[in-house]
Amino acid sequence: MYARKRVVIIGGGFGGIQLAKSLKNSEFDVLLIDKNNFHTFQPLLYQVATSGLEPGSIAYPIRRVFRKISNVKFRMAEVKNILTDQSKIETSVGLIHYDYLVIATGSSTNYFNFDSKKGKLLSLKSVVEALDIRSFIMENLEKAMLTRSITEQQELINVAIVGGGPAGIEMAGALAEMKKWVLPKDYPDIDFTQMQIHLFEASDRLLGAMSPLASKAAKKHLEKLDVVVELNTMVEDYDGARLKIKGKEDFISETVIWTAGVKGNIPHGLSEEIVAPGNRIKVDDFNKVLGYDNVYAIGDVSANINDETPRGLPMLAPVSMQQGLHLAKNLMAIQKGKNPKKFEYKDKGSMATIGRKKAVVDLPSISFQGTFAWFVWMLIHLLSLVGFRNKLVTLVDWIQNYFNYDRPLGLIIRRYKRKD
Amino acid sequence: MYARKRVVIIGGGFGGIQLAKSLKNSEFDVLLIDKNNFHTFQPLLYQVATSGLEPGSIAYPIRRVFRKISNVKFRMAEVKNILTDQSKIETSVGLIHYDYLVIATGSSTNYFNFDSKKGKLLSLKSVVEALDIRSFIMENLEKAMLTRSITEQQELINVAIVGGGPAGIEMAGALAEMKKWVLPKDYPDIDFTQMQIHLFEASDRLLGAMSPLASKAAKKHLEKLDVVVELNTMVEDYDGARLKIKGKEDFISETVIWTAGVKGNIPHGLSEEIVAPGNRIKVDDFNKVLGYDNVYAIGDVSANINDETPRGLPMLAPVSMQQGLHLAKNLMAIQKGKNPKKFEYKDKGSMATIGRKKAVVDLPSISFQGTFAWFVWMLIHLLSLVGFRNKLVTLVDWIQNYFNYDRPLGLIIRRYKRKD
């Protein structure tokens, strides 16, 4: 009897979903595992955090993606350990055997030397975290209504963002627009000219992974929106209210959003030799984990360290998706006795938005900024959302936002209590 | 100097919002207080619980309602005590003085003799509770995928609804439709013909407050959808898995949704003499609380007990809204030295929906059921939602639901842990 081989994929992010979809109707039985029952469109999390979109618009039930794909199954489970010698994984729902294992577990916030303070910082890597940021900011605004002391108000309404990558500048831009157009309407007793939004970046430019033109435009746009951009600036300490800055004055704020870095989520059970800088898994040109025969890694958690990419590929959705598609083809080739092909990343460009009619786009051959870039950004993100309903509701919210200079959703549904 | 008098309203439900809106540009300073920063459109909570709508579609930020009304302010606060002798209320944000106090605190679930078991029951009176029901049901479906035992599966997927009022039958209908059209697509390994949905009602008909025609149609429609309707049936005990039924076989289910009754939320500080049956506040024909000069109560929490209405008016949104509007007029009349008018409820009818193309409508002169009633139900509810954005997004989700026989939102964003 000919037994179908089983591909187990850990992680329902961009890479895992793409891989499972590309194995549709293949000779494999595919099992996709994620700790959530939904896929998160991470690039728009900042809009959930800033009351522009609802979680349901950027999250999509994984089961729904695979409804009509009979060889792909889904399990909501946490992976506890990988037993590579037995080709099994230990999960919260029991032991699961694999013929091929693909680790697509993505990345989480890297607090670096601030790790001991992470309970006091806000992070933006999941839907729950985005909702927590929303609740925390809205609750502090309510508190700020109760005091007449400018100092106390500032502590409650100021926002520090640490890290000038795409997540940081998008968050800063969205908050600056709320400050300008939305909050004064809802909180008439607060003087929002006193509200300071500071963006701290350790290097000498924003959007370090993009072109210098993009960096410059992002800085200019943010400053136009009254965001104070502090380059070459290191944060040193934080006590929940006072952010110490190296060589500069302290910044007073209860709200510090940490977007300064990410690290790979490596599951337990792999040898320590495969750990690359940034806590990523060392893979070869075929995304196979070094030293293992039937274990692969794709997306943020994987890094193919070589002369061309000494730090691995950038941790971006397009990389993960291309790797997912490529690995599917390779697994099917191997199954047919053919040779797998090396993965090559086709950089189709990158982009970030700073706010209304302002975005920066780097294509391989050209960089552009401004209104057209903003339309491109919106179109690409809208088309990338999973499901027609989510595309349509997002469009409704964006149109409303555009014409009313407004953000529809300022609900504190669950309070956020900061850990101390 | 002529000092403006201050009206303090506790509660941002249908009554409180209507009252504050109706006092727009009056001679009063109005302060509206609610523990949430949003108004909840309670009649559609069951659609949030059954993954048909997002919370943001049925909740609306209270501050936004009053943006352009300069004499109405809002505070998010919990009321701890009423000090009627000082005309002050104690809140989580300090003491607040009033000239007129209006209690519009609504109602919450009444567990009657099941009070000691309420930690094991699911309730549907707030957005958080609706999201908890959604998460609990979806998590149990995930668990049911892991067992091959029909008994274990049934315990996880069966649903009991206690109480045959509008909330109970709407919940039962929505769940029955999920069972029929949605769940088999998402959970192919579960045999949903084994899933039982039982609706238990102590009296001899559903929708006791509506016409016998409506009761009969609701029962017929629910039974067509495979809901087992058990009239004249008392639940006796529940241990988290086994629901004991008086004189009948136990019903096995982890999911028991309690919609069997509500009771008024009376704030602390009023005399015990004003408590009417159902924990409501006794008011006179002007909605003034008996025995107090400047304290009023409207909506679910108030009851004008007299020969015509020996149990007070029904606890419905239209009653609250009419009382809010009426009280606003009376307060303005009193302020001008005129006599207040008695409140008279104009019953414009009531309605409930059982599912796709099925609703029951009682108007004062006519009762009708079926597809047209369903369209009326949808139109009324759509128009009653606060805000254009919410109307539009709800319409999008209903259209999608109608044409695809689907429910777009099955996300488990926060796990629900049942208290034991």
TrEMBL record, chains A, B:
Keywords: FAD, Flavoprotein, Membrane, NAD, Oxidoreductase, Transit peptide, Transmembrane, Transmembrane helix. It comes from the Bacteria. The keyword Ion transport does not apply. It catalyses: a quinone + NADH + H(+) = a quinol + NAD(+). One of its GO terms (molecular function) is NADH dehydrogenase (quinone) (non-electrogenic) activity. Its EC number is 1.6.5.9. The chain crosses the membrane at residues 366-388. Residues 348-403 form the External alternative NADH-ubiquinone oxidoreductase-like C-terminal domain. Belongs to the NADH dehydrogenase family. This is NADH:ubiquinone reductase (non-electrogenic). It comes from Lishizhenia tianjinensis.
